[in-house]
Amino acid sequence: MLPLTPLPASDAVLNDSAGASAAVVCWRCAKHVTPAEGLCPYCRAVLTAGSGQTKVPVQRRPAEARILRLIWVFVLLLGTSLVYGWINHFGFERHEPGPKSVARSRNQILIVEAIDMVLVGAALLWIGRPAPLARRSVRRRVLIWLVAAPLLAVMLGVNIGYHWLLRQALPSLPIDNYEWLGREMGWIILAICIQPAVVEEVFFRYLALGSLRSVMGDHAAVAISAIMFGMAHIGAPLSIPVLMVVGLFLGYVRVAGRTLVLPVLLHFAHNLVVVLLSLLS
Question: In the chain, where are the structural domains located?
């Protein structure tokens, strides 16, 4: 079996006298491989050789160790979601009127989101930065930004339609709205729109997707990170399927656009529209 230990960057690619690639450290999965038709036989990453030698970024940690650490952090995030879901549905009565109920609900969300921020911040240090995405042309990036808005409208339609069907099938299903927060609109936007957009995108579309790409292809990495994104909302279990679809959309935007800014903005806009529609319903 071929060794899995990455070579130093200076020895990343060696060409034999015939010009064929003899030994390559894959830039994506960090495995020592022999390219097959210019592709890594493990993760199908495109491997190219320049004149004499191609430099490949050295992985900060073995890919397997990164994935294991990613799983541990994800389990902790699942735990916070479960605790908040239990408190939200079986603990305090958030719909009872009065300023005490508003303050209590606000404190619940703030505590959970503070824990999530600490976990994701620690994950950045513990897991390390994933390998950067290859650059796209300016024209390609502009195109992705242009098509992102109509695609977001489609995702919102899917989300709204899915929950409408749920309410038709389950009339007793409680409707998640934010009227119980009174006039706390400023912090609603901060806690429901801004914080999740930044923290969740950093974890799922940067750390998770980037780490998974080190051991598999883009499509598989996007799919698995989308499943993780949906499962992370286990506090609202009936919403998991549609959130997986939203996660697929954001994952492909991240890979196609080569930027984290666009998924963050789309995530923020998605949550903001959902909150506004809830307040108007």
Answer: 1-59, 63-280
Report the distance separating Cα 117 and Cα 124, nearest Å: 11
Per the CB < 8 A criterion, the answer to whether 225 and 208 are in contact is: yes
pLDDT in tens, 235-260: 888 999 999 999 999 999 999 999 99
pTM strictly above 0.70: yes
Return the DSSP state at 182. T
**Closest to 31 (Cα-Cα) out of 48, 12, 14:** 12
Picking from 54, 49, 46, the residue whose alpha carbon sits closest to that of residue 20 is: 49
Element (H, E) at 14: strand 13-15
pLDDT in tens, 38-49: 777 776 677 765
| 103 CB burial (10 A radius; 0-12, 13-18, 19+) | exposed
